[in-house]
Amino acid sequence: MARAWMKAAIAGLAIMAMTAPVHAADTIKIGVPGAHSGDLSSYGLPSLNAARIVVDEYNANGGILGKQIEIIAQDDQCKPELGTNAATKVLSEGAVVVMGSICSGATKAALPIYNDAKIVSISPSATTPELTQSGEYPYFFRTVASDDMSGHLAATFAKDKLGLKKIALLHDKGDYGRGFVTYAREVLEKGGVEIVLEEGITPGAVDYGAVIQKVRRSGADGIIFGGYHPEASKLVQQLAKKRVKIPFIGPDGVKDEQFIKVAGKNAEGVYATGPTDVSKLPMNITAHENHKKRFGTEPGAFYDNAYSATIALIEAIKAAGSTDSDKIMEALRTNYVETPLGKIKFDAKGDAEGAGFSIYQVQNGTFVELK
């Protein structure tokens, strides 16, 4: 009899364990995948730092829904093949929302995983238009404007402000870089600007001499480049060495302090698009002071966007009163929240209303917004 009673008790405990509610978790977990190492970590680490600062502030004030918030960080190095791994890991560790990823390629690779799991994600920096405009990823949001805006701005600036007539389009063959020059081409062709060269380069290559020779022979009076700062810094250095002195315009993937550090004096005069300067907003000033207090430095690229994305996710969970994804999405689309980018909410596609781009130029070793 005693042995039978023990078996029944054990079986009962097993049933209770299997049916324990998911919401009994000790913390609310936010996944933060991104480039935390490698050449593009200067994009990913500021975003991870932003998430840590925001989460620590909420936790110091009691957390949300009666629980503390926990960050689940995963490194994808901005590589699509690692993006899927990072997405799988943050979900397997219990993330209920995601702030990331950073690069469009890794984000695109991860989104089907989040979509299938019905998990809301907000990227601070993935700018490929189709991520929101295709309708494929209803659980995806972002706090940065898209490449169509960025590409159109770069091309309009080249045509109207610089007066360029013959443009060489270079890109890194990726979704982000190729997309940027595609949108630039739309404006240039409509405006009567001649595209004298369009060429893809190989990321990580040591020597871009062959493509620079093509630029020289093409007679281009300016270059619009789609890609990230490691390739851009090599290009401007080698263009200077070959004495090809024409304007160089890149996307927000070039507007990074690491570009200036690597390119050195050859960075001077380079143009790049980037999120509109909001540095004078009181909440933005506070966010930057928080970074300096904790890490001893100014934050890097997309810090403001990541800080804002993290706040938006946490406030949406608070407004929803749960971690139910449909309720979180509804809150993101209907409730304005105060962030370092200003007061934001998201449109039906998932884009942050009011997010925009400006043109910047490297002047005396720093990016300066052109009015």
Largest sheet: 7 strands, mixed
Write the CATH homologous superfamily of the largest domain. Response regulator
Q: Structural class, please?
A: alpha/beta
The total beta strand count reads: 14
Task: Tell me roughly what share of residues is in helical segments.
Answer: 40-55%
Q: Please tally the helical runs, counting DSSP H or I stretches of 4 or more residues.
A: 13
The largest sheet has its strands arranged as 7-6-8-9-10-13-14
How would the global form be characterised? elongated
**Termini distance?**
86 Å
The mean pLDDT is 92
Instruction: Supply the CATH architecture of the largest domain.
Output: 3-Layer(aba) Sandwich
Please tell me about this protein's structure:
- The structure is a single chain.
- It is built from 13 helices and 14 strands.
- It is 46% helix and 19% strand.
- The chain has 2 domains: 22-144 and 279-355, Response regulator (Rossmann fold, 3-Layer(aba) Sandwich); 148-251, Response regulator (Rossmann fold).
- With 371 residues, it is of the alpha/beta class.
- The protein has helices at residues 2-18, 41-60, 80-92, 104-117, 130-133, 147-161, 175-190, 209-218, 229-241, 257-263, 282-295, 303-320, 325-334; strands at residues 27-34, 68-75, 97-99, 120-123, 140-142, 166-171, 194-200, 222-226, 248-250, 271-275, 337-339, 342-344, 357-363, 366-369.
- The termini are far apart.
- The longest helix has 20 residues, at 41-60.
